[in-house]
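TL;DR need structure tokens for one chain.
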Amino acid sequence: MAEPAKKRVEELRKQIEHHNKLYYTDAAPEISDGAYDRLMKELIGLEAAHPELKTKDSPTQRVGGAPLEGFKTITHKVPMLSLDNTYNPEDLREFDARIKKITEKYTYTVELKIDGVAISLIYKDGYFETGITRGDGERGDDVTANIKTIKSLPLKIENGKSGNVEVRGEVYLSKKQFEKINKEREAKGEPLFANPRNSAAGTLKLLDSGIVAKRRLDFFAYYLVDSAKYGIKTQWQALEKLKAAGFPVNENIKLCKNIDEVIETCAKWEKRRNELDYEIDGMVIKVNEFDKQQILGMTAKSPRWAISYKFKAEQAKTKLKKITVQVGRTGALTPVAELEPVLLASTTVKRATLHNEEDLERKDAREGDTVIVEKAGEIIPEVVSVVLAERPAGAKKFKMPVNCPVCGEKTEKYEDEAVRRCINIKCPAVVEGSIIHFASRDGMNIDGMGPALVQQLLKTKMIFDYGDLYTLDIFALASLERMGQKSADNIVKAIEASKDRELDRLIYSLGIRNVGGRTAEILSDNYPDLKSLMAAKEEELSCINEIGPVVAHDIYDFFRVKENLQVIGKLEKAGVNTKRKEQRVKKNILNGDVFVFTGELKAYTRGEAGNIVKSLGGRVSGSVSKETNYVVAGPEAGSKLDKARKLGVKVIDEKEFLDIIKQDNKAEVVKKEPEKKSGKNNKKSQGELF
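>> reply
TL;DR here they are.
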């Protein structure tokens, strides 16, 4: 290895990373794009001539490589929880009051809520190793190759020594870059992206990192996992450490002494949000001190020490050109307003929902009207109201179609529903929606079976319903457009893997009206297999706690439809699991006793506690009834506690619950174990990272 070449490579890397920081983080470039490209070209040439000089942290590793065949799923070591939302100052004061009940002498950090894609970054021994999307909070997609293209992101942590570091943050697309990309797509006759956030999310899911690199995604770090092990005591200090280690940290962070300062800061940025070159949809408020965060703890879904303050939805005025009707998987007809394009929350809006027939009737929206639109939750545009003073003469009242606009069959509207439905189970729109729902992540989780592929499969008549998915083979799939042999193989493997899903997942996937994840879980707890659920009487179903007569009717009706039974027959023939996977009961000490958990537990999460109950022969319910034997009430117990007292149900605290389950010391406790540490000096090496 030539020493001059090695020296020049090191010089070039330092220069390029220096200019990356100036351009992408500081927004203060010192050299032209041409000069930068010449430096990069020289480095690429030297590394090609001397492969032994190429390292993991080289700037050349940001350049996109060969296209990927797909993304693998990775489980987060620490779940990426969502935040509770609040929408006004009163809610923020209530949040502060709840904290005051538990602890005192604390401050707040107030951070901009970047409207992007949450990402977890894993560094091993100081070098970037893995980038994972938030996904469902428990697991996400490995998008490492695409993350490497973000030039503001360090590939090597400054002063990093040994061990693993996890940093979380938001990947986003600047407004300027978003506009540039859309101009290029318009020139090519390609469909425009809806907004920067969707563009960022879509870009991260591209299989060709070369295209990703050209889109120029950006990143802000906002959280260092396990900060305390590095001797860091506050969120403010953690952000300073991240900044010192080379991570881009948003500069618009405020340390507030009290809730009044928090509210003032939120109000300021709600007014100034459009001054920024990136989208924000609110603020994130966190208790600054980590020891206070520890005291406050977590709920099953979110931390008690943090909250999101969402800005009011922006509104815009435009013309309603036409009303069209969409058909969903349950046959529901949704009126949609086709609009004159209007800029709303930095995105161009051309369509907005009118929700359902009753909502349309109430608003009396007509073609030709001037309407007010806003983004519900900053995502879905909806028509809020009609400007009646600007209604054109002769504007006719819109009538929902009597016949389905997709299949032409007759529609019906029931008295107890706000929607009109197509009742044709073979309607192409209903079939397509049901297959997409079946394969979804919350359903059977068939990776790669997205809307585009489903449409292709239906168009080519390879499938007619979701039962046919299990007859697909590699060769048939590989014959489709944009489908290689490797991709086809991955999808077939994903279909095969889905055969072993839990019974509740299967029940949810069937697409029974009004049966969501929780209801499917309840049904699985009450019936050992799909066959017994199918045979259940309507009266029997309605007696199940949390089901009720309406849902019971929908379930009973679903299993009385010949076409549904035929599809289920296909699933059974294919070997899809239709039985509850019984949790091994070590000792039936609870003898079927029903437990309800309310408030928070210290020793276990509610899910873990529920698993213990089931392992000891008990049952878990989500609501209190006369059949409930115990209500386990922790801090901040809600209405369930009140109902238990009213019904005379026995209420116990966590200590009493632990005493009950300790009757069998050999009880199988399904509890997440802490990550095992290796090596004598593991703790020390972890602390050396910063």
